[in-house]
Amino acid sequence: MARCVLKFGGTSVANVTRLEHVAEIIKQEIDAGNQIAVVVSAMAGNTNELVGYTHSLCSHQATLEHDVVLAAGEQITSGLLALALQRLGLKSRSFLAWQVPIQTDDSPSHARITNIPTIELEKCFKNNIVPVVAGFQGITKENRITTLGRGGSDTTAVALAAALSADRCDIYTDVDGVYTADPRLVAKASKLSSITYEEMFEMAAQGAKVLQARSVELAMKHKVNLRVLSSFIKSKGTYITSERNLVESTVISGIAHNQNEVKITLVDIPNEAANIATIFGKLTENLINVDMIVQSCSLNNKMNLTFTLLRSDLDRALPVLEKIKKELNFSEIIVDNEIVKISVIGIGMKCNMEVASTLFKTLAEHNIHIQLISTSEIKISVIIDQHYTPLAVAALHTAFDLDEKKT
Amino acid sequence: MARCVLKFGGTSVANVTRLEHVAEIIKQEIDAGNQIAVVVSAMAGNTNELVGYTHSLCSHQATLEHDVVLAAGEQITSGLLALALQRLGLKSRSFLAWQVPIQTDDSPSHARITNIPTIELEKCFKNNIVPVVAGFQGITKENRITTLGRGGSDTTAVALAAALSADRCDIYTDVDGVYTADPRLVAKASKLSSITYEEMFEMAAQGAKVLQARSVELAMKHKVNLRVLSSFIKSKGTYITSERNLVESTVISGIAHNQNEVKITLVDIPNEAANIATIFGKLTENLINVDMIVQSCSLNNKMNLTFTLLRSDLDRALPVLEKIKKELNFSEIIVDNEIVKISVIGIGMKCNMEVASTLFKTLAEHNIHIQLISTSEIKISVIIDQHYTPLAVAALHTAFDLDEKKT
């Protein structure tokens, strides 16, 4: 008998027919003698609809009331899936965040899970009841509802697997695993049978939509055996573990691309040490995360500062930057919407200096200009013109020997 | 300064524009120096959509998971209205049932409120925060979510007004008050400036959709000053109180009609005392409420039993009745879908014997056959063929001198 957490995302629970199919998958696990806890997202499209309502009332999205509205989506799915399981003759009940409870800090819309007492869920296991937990939501110490950010249900699933000491955590989605690149962009992209936590974290952080980056970080920390697989087709999916399958030990595990960022340049900032701290301090105060940063000197003791941030934060960031502009008296704010971040990721990169040069050479061969560069131990990211996305990803996929070999 | 509970129903909160309008109404009350608690229903159409989902997974609607799904609707509205109020510069927060808490018994889909501790809401009043309470939902002792039945938000509002010792409870809806008959059926229907609890209870119970009957019962019990008015047009609405305005002291206050019932006849039941108890006992066990009942003797020591029940309960009632049929060995179950219940209601009826004869005479004049009759101290209801609904209501409206006088 294994204890498993199964998580089903938006398209897997998009309608009643899909929910019935998901119930069948769960029943197979139960019939195989496993102890199962389920985590669900909102039905596909539902969250966007709710965000639409809140957005028209309040452009600043990070409020507790915004979270109250959004959390309704997962509530609906958890109740419906419990009904679908009951219909198959299983005992099942839904759990909302406050009923578990899933305790978080009190940051609206980006809350972090602080604790999950498991007494109620253990009671379910003891009585052969399948608990269906509403993902994405939590509660604060003051009993207010929070949400965990986009894709937060992945984090709920991993945190629950850690709290329950589960043998595995299966993330069911609409793709059958993790690919070396987005298969919609690169026809020769191939599915990885396994990938390390570190690589998966970078893949997720750099734009691969298959898992929320935070959930991977959490899985790594608690050594949760994670798997990504499809609820639509039968396949073993991709295992995310401490060590990668040796057969696949190429230097690079995949190419990610991310079109969700915009590039901002602040022109002619007086070159004083405190100014950079002021700028990023104000952005942080307003819960705006900055990704890549480059500072460059200009003439007359002035400097330019270029950085990227989430496209969805731009509307909130601009008034903040306009205020700083007046305060620091710099000359201009330039926004570039037409960028993409391409990242080359692989644990093998640590001891292989050729990756960067292959990357630069490949892009140069296609006359693609690099605007920003950022590196970490296991990834290199570059910002380029968005129009080159398919060309750049495919060329790098070939250059790093990732193209699927028909064997 | 008055303390008031304001309740806004489905069409009043149907979209973001309506919610902003509702926020303006609330702001006017606050600006007038009043202490306001708000109760909201789900956005119009939302509950039906959610019922559709649950119904396709489970035809037996009365389960706790069904309630979990449905309660999401009010959660969405409460969060959105709190946002709309914040946008107007007011302090506001949403309250879900578990946060107040609104305690109920544990009957799924038809729960009754058992207690509402007011400590959290009093804290809001103290800090000038407008609480927006999700109507229709409650929680059991075991922290499971329940709902109060269709129109249950009215009951939430009245129960809250009683718990908070509110000076008044205003029910905002899409009509500007209580009418002597459905204005869509009777062009000469007129708005009542006041009506007694007893009359309103019968009006609601007999099919007037303006208020949930249970909410009126509760208001009567706790002497809550109730008012029905429109969020769409400015008007004083209709006051529901202990005593009716003398100026309007006609015998009859209104004519209600209800097409939500079906008539069932059980044919040739063995005439034994225990059998009737068995039949209604089994229906009650299955949470199926029966309304009007007539027993008639047939030949050979057999009897027929005719009764009405809610159209929405028919699918659940039929298998129960089929089982009883085998057990008691009676010959037939006849279902008549094409009926309407017409009710003549008025506190003046208590000491006026002419009402019944006027009713029978009027229907006879139009050759309308009466199938069942039921009376109470302040109402007479008859079941007739559904096709005669507009004719019967209009004729009775005239006969009882309710037609609007242009003065």
What are the SSEs and their pairings?
2 copies of one chain form a homodimer.
Chain A: E1 3-8, H1 16-31, E2 35-40, H2 46-57, H3 64-87, E3 91-95, E4 103-104, E5 113-115, H4 119-126, E6 129-134, E7 137-139, E8 145-147, H5 152-163, E9 168-173, E10 194-196, H6 197-205, H7 213-222, E11 226-230, E12 238-241, E13 254-258, E14 261-270, H8 273-285, E15 290-297, E16 302-310, H9 314-328, E17 332-336, E18 339-345, H10 354-365, E19 372-376, E20 379-385, H11 389-399
Parallel strand pairs in A: 1-2, 1-9, 2-6, 3-6, 9-11, 10-12
Antiparallel strand pairs in A: 4-5, 7-8, 11-12, 13-18, 14-16, 14-17, 15-16, 18-20, 19-20
Helix pairs in contact in A: 1-3, 2-3, 5-7, 6-7, 8-9, 10-11
Average pLDDT, all residues of chain A:
89
List the quaternary state of the chains. Answer: homodimer
**Residue share in β-strands of chain A:** 25-35%
Q: Would you give the CATH topology of the domain at 3-174 in chain A? A: Carbamate kinase
Q: Percentage of helical residues of chain A?
A: 25-40%
Q: Count of DSSP E strands of chain A? A: 20
How are the strands ordered across the major sheet of chain A? 3-6-2-1-9-11-12-10
